[in-house]
Amino acid sequence: MRSASIAVALLFIPAITSAQTLSDAERQALLASLEKTDAQLVQVVESLTPEAWAFKPAEDRWSVAEVAEHILLAEQLFKQVIKGPLIESRPPDDMSTAGSRSDEIRNLMLDRSQKLQAPDPLRPTGRWPTRAEFLAAWQPERAATLEWVETTDADLHGHAYELPPLGVMNGQEWMTFMASHCERHMMQIEEVMAHPDFPRTTGR
């Protein structure tokens, strides 16, 4: 009788373990967002002249080049956190594994009326001054992100790490933040390009 009970219990272990990974719906939503913004960013960067790439709407506003640099720096940092200290963290005893804050996080990131200050490590400093240099760094970085999201079986729901000012987020919520962060800054690029003084000649 005891062995039968153990056997029945073991049947549930794979289900419990797999429930901590990304669900099919979560994975597909992340991939759709990442693929969309990748195509948008590459198309914009390839279309710009050097003058348009460097154009600043005001002294205290970022150029497309600076926004693009920030997007890439953030993606590198977010993945380092997710694959490192987040996955290595001890799962909090009281943490929900439902990823219930994803909609809240995405809505916050897509609200451009709410201004957020980039921390110093993510502020642009001209690391990739030309469009070609940026694309040479960006395209393999985003390709690696897509491959990881598509194939990972990491316990993204079962571990968490703090991101001020949003607080403690599990791995799935961090991934939602990363994807939404790029969407947010694509909107910022559109705002730069809508400026009346923005150079209109394409770079092709």
From TrEMBL:
Keywords: Signal. It comes from Candidatus Kutchimonas denitrificans. Residues 1-19 form the signal peptide. InterPro entries: DinB-like, DinB/YfiT-like. Residues 34-189 form the DinB-like domain. This is DinB family protein. Pfam families: DinB_2 (PF12867). Gene3D superfamilies: dinb family like domain (1.20.120.450).
